[in-house]
Amino acid sequence: MATIRKRFRADGTASYPAQIRLARDGQQVYQESQTFARKQAAQVWARRREAELDQPGAIARLSRTSVSVQDMIDRYLVEVEKARPLGKTKRGTLTAIGNSYFGGLSDTDINTQALVDYALWRMSVEGGDVQPQTAGNDLAHLGAVLSIARDAWGYHVDPLAMGGARRVLRKLGYNLKSRERDRRPTLDELEKILQHYRDMQARRPSVINMLKVVGFALFSTRRLDEITRIRWADIDEVGQRVLVRDMKNPGQKIGNDVWCYVPDEAWQILQTMPRVGDDIFPYSPESISTSWTKACKFLNIVDLHFHDLRHEGVSRLFEMAWDIPRVASVSGHRDWNSLRRYTHLRGQGDRYAQWAWLEQIVSAPVQLGAASMKWLNRRVLSH
Fold first, then answer.
1. How does strand 241-244 pair with strand 235-236?
2. Which of 65, 137, 307, 351 has a CA that sits 20 to 30 A from residue 377's CA?
3. How far apart are CA 140 and CA 118, in angstroms?
4. 106, exposed or middle or buried, with CB in 10 Å at 0-12, 13-18, 19+?
5. End-to-end distance of the chain based on CA atoms, in angstroms?
6. Start and end of every Tyr recombinase domain (predicted)?
7. Alpha-carbon span 187 to 347, nearest angstrom
8. How crowded is the C-beta side of 260, counted as CA atoms within 13 Å?
C-alpha cells in the first residue's frame, strides 16, 4: 500500500513524497519512493506502480541483479562455441562491442534509443568513423546475442529494441545494408598487374606466385581465404571439383564445406602448382592481400580489391551464357537470388577467349620460398 505525505520545502512550497513498501511473510521485499509537486500526481503514480508491481514476477525482476552487455556477449561466445566454432569476424566484432562503452550497459538499459545511440557513436569520429554498413554489421552481430538472451538465459532484454533501432536509423537516412560492389578489373588493369608480378617473379622467384594466385582467383571465383585453404586431398580429379572448406555463408561458416566445380582455365592453373605439402597454394592470405594492395597503389589502379576478381569471374560465366545453377556450382552460392543481379550479362561473350596471359600464367614456374614452407609446416605442427 502506498503512503503519501505532505511536506514543506525551505521556501514554503508543499511537496508530496509517495512511498511504496511491499512485504512478504512479514519481511519487506521491495521499497520505492518518488516526490511530486501535486498530491493528485502522487496518487496517480502510486496507483499505476502498485498495479505494475502486482503483476506476476514483477518483484523478482526488480530484485534481480542486472547483467552487463559484456557479460551477455561473453556467455554467448562460450555457449555458441559449444555447438559450432564462430567465425573470426563475428567474434572480433562482438569482442569490440563488449570492450566499448556499450559493454558496460546493463540488460535493462538496452532499448531502441540505446541501440540507435551506439550506431551513431560508431559512425562518429570518437567511435571509429565507420560507414553505416559497418554499424549495421555491428547491430547484426549484437542482435544474435540479444535474440537469445531473454529466452535462453532470462535476461531482461526488450525483444523489439533491435527492430525499432533499425527503423529509426533508416528514417534518419542511414543505409545499413552492405552495398553491392560492381567494380570489375579492366583488361588493361589486369595487363599492368600481371606484368608487374611477372617482373617481380623474375627478380625474386621464391616470392608468392601472384600470377598463379590472381589467375586462379579470376577463373575459379574463389575468395582469397578459400584459395589458401584448398588442399590436394580435397581435389576430385574425375569430377574436376574442389572441396571448399568453411565456405562463407550467412549464419554458418565453420563446417560449411561445399564441393565446387573448377572451370577449365582454373583447373589448368591448379595442376601446375607443386605437390609439396597439404596446401595447393601455400601462401598466407594476409601476405597475398598486402601484395595486391601494394601493387595497385604502385600502378595507380584505384579502388580495385582482390575480391573483385571473384565478381569478375562470376560475371564472365554469365557472359558465356551459363545459367544460374551452373554458375552456382562454381561460385558455391546457395541462394540463387544473389546471382540474379548478374543475369543481364548473359550471352555477351567471353572476353578472356584467346587471352594471351592464360598461357603465361599456366607456364610460369613456381619456386616455394621459406615463407611458403613455413606456411605448410604450420598445418603439420597443428596436428
1. antiparallel
2. 307
3. 13
4. middle
5. 68
6. 180-355
7. 19
8. 28
Q: Decide: helix, strand or coil at residue 165.
A: helix
> What's the length of the chain?
383
Give, in degrees to the nearest 5, the angle at Cα 287 between 314 and 128.
85
Q: Are strands 2-4 and 258-261 parallel, antiparallel or unpaired?
A: unpaired
> In terms of DSSP H, where are the helices of the chain?
39-53, 58-63, 69-83, 88-99, 112-122, 132-153, 161-171, 187-203, 210-220, 224-227, 264-271, 285-298, 308-319, 324-331, 356-363, 370-382
Report d(CA 106, CA 127) in Å as an integer: 20
Dist CA 349 CA 367 (whole Å): 35
316-329 burial, b at 16+ Cβ within 10 Å, e below that, comes to: bbbbbebebeebbb
Cβ neighbourhood burial of 49 (10 Å; 0-12, 13-18, 19+): middle
Q: From first to last of its 383 residues, what are the pLDDT tens digits of the chain?
A: 688 888 888 888 888 888 888 777 777 777 778 888 888 888 888 888 888 777 777 666 666 667 889 999 999 998 887 777 777 788 899 999 999 999 988 888 888 999 999 999 999 998 889 889 899 999 999 999 998 888 888 888 888 889 999 999 999 988 887 767 788 999 999 999 999 999 999 999 888 999 999 999 999 999 999 999 999 999 999 999 999 987 876 555 556 788 999 999 999 999 999 998 889 999 989 999 999 999 999 999 999 999 999 999 999 999 999 988 999 999 988 877 778 777 667 678 899 999 999 999 999 998 887 777 777 776 544 44
